[in-house]
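Exercise 7.
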Amino acid sequence: MDFTKLYLIIVSAIAFGYVLASILVETKLVNWIGLKTLKLSKFGIHPLLTNVPVIYLVSPRAAHITASNLLKEGKIEPIDLYLAILASNFPMRLMFLYRYYFPVLVPLIGVIAVYYGLLRLAFDVVVLIIVSIIGKIRYRNLKFDYPEYSSICLEFSLKTLKEGFIKGLKEAFSFILKFTPLFFLIVFLIKAGFMEKFTKMLKPYLGTFGFNSLEITYITTAAVSPPVAYGLIKIMIEKNHPVTHILGTMAVGNAMFSLIRSWWAYLLPYYLGLYPISVINVLLLLQAGLPIVYNFTVGIILVKFF
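Solution. The predicted structure, written as tokens, is:
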């Protein structure tokens, strides 16, 4: 495996994604899309929490602070919070897909990135439908006061494009500083045989579901660093792996990452200090547990039966 080439491909693709994302922000295209998704907050959300999905697009922590204050004041119940946060996942997923996932992974692995993005989006759509049904039943006797919608003027100019490009490069540079040591750590673990040993430990379990050695290597690598693992998708494509196997491998890899790292590194910091332990446990179950079960289930089905 040419790790130098792999490193350059990953860094180039992700730098492109950061630049494109910054341009979308500077030209206010992100705000325009956020305004369109605001209508989704009308479905199945407590009237006092209808702004949470919109705030979630800008800052998840700010959204949780808003909801936490209402919970502490006794104006909402925990279930109202759960419904609002679950409903926020759909617009958040849309933003993640067009701001980071597609710009970064489409240049790297092509149309497979689109297939997998839609596979992940399907889960959030189903959750949104369920939340809407529960919310409509729960709030059928409440009156909703919808906010007034205002237009957003897009700002496509040489100045905004330049500012977006420069900010994107700065963010990409910051990412590279964090990513490079981790990449070399993964390379060291692979070269030293640690990943191979880990793979052999998991192979009796994952192998029974139809995953081969390369796919198991992807899963174990994704558990540590998905950006590093994405490079292995290129190898699978070159080796003509079935698309269903690649999608299933990516799904299980995502589940492993969430199980080992994501829930405590990303979700828990939003919740600590804001909610009671009982609420935190439920939020982790909903925001981490359900996606983990979904990804594992879908991944195993795609690899074993397709």
